[in-house]
Amino acid sequence: MKKHILVIPGDGIGPEVTTWGKAVLEKIAEKFGHEFTFDEALMGHAGIEATGNPLPDETLEKAKASDAILFGAIGHIKYDNDPSAKVRPEQGLLKIRKELGLYANLRPIMLFDELLDASSLKPEILKGTDILFFRELTGDVYFGEKKRSEDRNTASDLMIYSRYEVERIAIKAYEAAMVRGKKLCSVDKANVLEASRLWREVVQDIAKQYPEVETEHMFIDNAAMQLVKNPKKFDVVLTANLFGDILTDEASQIAGSMGMLASASIGDGTGFFEPIHGSAHDIAGQDKANPLASILSVALMLEISFGLKDEAKAVTDAIDKTLKDGYRTGDIADANTDKSKILGTKLMGQKVLE
Amino acid sequence: MKKHILVIPGDGIGPEVTTWGKAVLEKIAEKFGHEFTFDEALMGHAGIEATGNPLPDETLEKAKASDAILFGAIGHIKYDNDPSAKVRPEQGLLKIRKELGLYANLRPIMLFDELLDASSLKPEILKGTDILFFRELTGDVYFGEKKRSEDRNTASDLMIYSRYEVERIAIKAYEAAMVRGKKLCSVDKANVLEASRLWREVVQDIAKQYPEVETEHMFIDNAAMQLVKNPKKFDVVLTANLFGDILTDEASQIAGSMGMLASASIGDGTGFFEPIHGSAHDIAGQDKANPLASILSVALMLEISFGLKDEAKAVTDAIDKTLKDGYRTGDIADANTDKSKILGTKLMGQKVLE
Ligand SMILES: CC(C)[C@H](C(=O)O)[C@@H](O)C(=O)O
Ligand SMILES: CC(C)[C@H](C(=O)O)[C@@H](O)C(=O)O
């Protein structure tokens, strides 16, 4: 199979971790006889530094021309502390999601048995957890109109959804539920928000087409609670952009570390694959970042964008084996970890490659 | 001391639990020589059933005339599954918050040592956690304009904040931080939302008046994660209405159960005290509900609205003792609980009274 992959390292630890995602793709191509070609492009703070634009035109063109995109991370502390900055790294990520029509963000919460102890949740609460989040990605308060009054004392964002936006992601989530545990939990705040009431109406409509799937509607506050209380009860979780942002980060703690979670953004065209962790500037360039989420992003790319199941499995098996052999990065190490097996980004990447 | 207290039992398990809150207030009056008088009023589904209005005029009048309000819970499953219902129980709660100017919702996350094992978090992660949330309660997407297009296919809610709304709650939160651990974490989503950028600007301004307090700004997705990962790191948490709704419910898991958490809503006038749990219709009327959150609401009322510290302490001591004696309601029982000490609402209420 011939595929052209765009690597967008982005900011902070992005470049370090995507290096290993790419290395794994090369290894897979070699082992399974595929031909993967690569290109690289800038986004976020890196884009601003080079061109003044968090999503340079060239990056968008390259993205559209590629078969899949491997992304690192975005963001810079400089902008976080300056709420009045006009140009911000995150705008690049939001714009590429919109431009590529990446309306569905899939975040699987998989649990590696070896990492049960790295979580703050009790192992008996965790064991058996297997959740697939569908987070809507191109609507909601993220993209609704933003306003600031002239005296700068009032600010607003419009939380807005249209029927078709909810429909298309609901269908994807129900399709996934059909080949999984046939349970779907839709999360909203329909007791307060009109956008959530529309959300719930549409999901109720789509649910009728999937009578085999057991549908539950849950308020976001309750969902945030249940996720800690009893994560096992969830199978497919379907939710809006903002609620999905919050819930999936919370759920990452279940998997032991953000460093262990990847996400796939899909929709109208090219798929976009990235770790769910951020740019983590505090550890950037120190060979401390966990490359496994980037490598897991590659597994998602192989499976979802290229339909290469065996290749995807080879990647997750390699991660599994590395963990079984006792190797850990700092973020997933615990009191029982053999200190000599706590590795930096590079050595961890190499272990998986081997 | 003479005080007039309005009891609003509300829906579901509300009446069962407020009965015990009220009984504790009577006991305290007797023991400490105060004169507490009581009245009762309807709200929520109970209000709709009786008058068609989730907040009957009479309730609002009585509320304004009282020195403090003890509230139960709100909501009914009937409306949750009907997103197109025009009149909803929750409107009563939202309206009374707005009418009484209850802009600051205080939610202390206290940990009773006896309940360490009831949480899904590991005891070593939990131990020492002591968080005071300040959730803004009369602004945000809760109260911004709601719209539905004529064809009903598009729906929106306006997320909106003005400077003074952020200022007044920020000041309350900083004042609390000064008499606690002198650490404040403000939670927003300033990398995406304009309302959050205003929020952050204002908090940065107020922070300058409290140089002794260590201020941190955190994105909501990260906060939802850190709360599970390392709850001990938080002292005072300041956040907007919607984010606060989500974070405090999530945090309730830390305290072992929602049944153990109370909240105080304060602002321009009469204070409003309630458990953070919902109406829990599935167990309503079955003598299963945990009355401790309502009793803890009473402790908050005694301390915050009436300035009666010793009385408040007598209440929390009584709860402490009951737990130490091994008594539990079902929600906070665990594998080690002596089965004969698992009590219903009534017996638990009585134990605390004793
Ligand atoms: C960086 C930020 C804009 C982004 C989001 O909120 O969507 C991130 O948190 C994510 O979840 O991908
Ligand atoms: C019932 C609902 C409107 C309410 C809210 O979202 O504020 C509740 O969840 C709460 O936290 O008090």
TrEMBL record, chains A, B:
Binding, substrate: R97, R107, R135, D221
Gene3D superfamilies assigned to the protein according to its UniProt record, in alphabetical order: Isopropylmalate Dehydrogenase (3.40.718.10)
Domain Isopropylmalate dehydrogenase-like: 4-352
Free-text remark on how the cofactor is bound: Binds 1 Mg(2+) or Mn(2+) ion per subunit.
SUPFAM superfamilies associated with the record: Isocitrate/Isopropylmalate dehydrogenase-like
Site (Important for catalysis): Y142, K189
Entry superkingdom: Bacteria
Cofactor(s) essential for the protein: Mn(2+); Mg(2+)
Top EC group: oxidoreductase
Protein's pathway: Amino-acid biosynthesis; L-leucine biosynthesis; L-leucine from 3-methyl-2-oxobutanoate: step 3/4
Database matches in PANTHER family: 3-ISOPROPYLMALATE DEHYDROGENASE
Task of the protein: Catalyzes the oxidation of 3-carboxy-2-hydroxy-4-methylpentanoate (3-isopropylmalate) to 3-carboxy-4-methyl-2-oxopentanoate. The product decarboxylates to 4-methyl-2 oxopentanoate.
Family: Belongs to the isocitrate and isopropylmalate dehydrogenases family. LeuB type 1 subfamily.
Subunit structure as annotated in this protein's UniProt entry: Homodimer.
Name under which the protein is recorded: 3-isopropylmalate dehydrogenase
Native source organism of the sequence: Mucilaginibacter pankratovii
Lineage summary: Bacteria, Pseudomonadati, Bacteroidota, Sphingobacteriia, Sphingobacteriales
